[in-house]
Amino acid sequence: MKGQNIKKSLFSEWRTIDTAQSAASIFDITHDQEPTLENYCIALLEKVFTIPQSQLPEFINYQLQIAQDGNTWLNKFEKLLAIMKNYSLVKRH
């Protein structure tokens, strides 16, 4: 996944928590690199594929609550998943 595809998702806002912060929620998107759009998208996808499937609705609700515009965030999230659909990271076996 590289910048060109990620730019198509165009998250206008993103919130990440430095990995070193111990107070982060299990649903926070954490980073140990510079918080950029590409790093945010990678961390977001990693989070989605590592949390239990049963917690996915709670994760999405959490992200919607912390976003300034939940509908826009959800639309961008769906767009990111659509972009990534053809990559092996999200292909189902």
Architecture overview:
This protein is mainly α and 93 residues long. It is 51% helix and 4% strand. The protein is built from 4 helices and 2 strands. The protein has a two-stranded parallel sheet with strand order 1-2. Helix 1 (3-9) packs antiparallel against helix 4 and helix 3 packs across helix 4 (70-84).
Oligomeric form: single chain
| Overall form | globular
Order of SSEs, N→C? HEEHHH
The assigned structural class equals mainly alpha
Quick take:
The protein is mainly alpha-helical. The protein has 4 helices and 2 strands.
Features:
single chain, mainly alpha, 93 residues
Would you spell out the secondary-structure blueprint of this structure?
Layout: H1 3-9, E1 17-18, E2 30-31, H2 37-50, H3 56-66, H4 70-84
Parallel strand pairs: 1-2
Helix pairs in contact: 1-4, 3-4
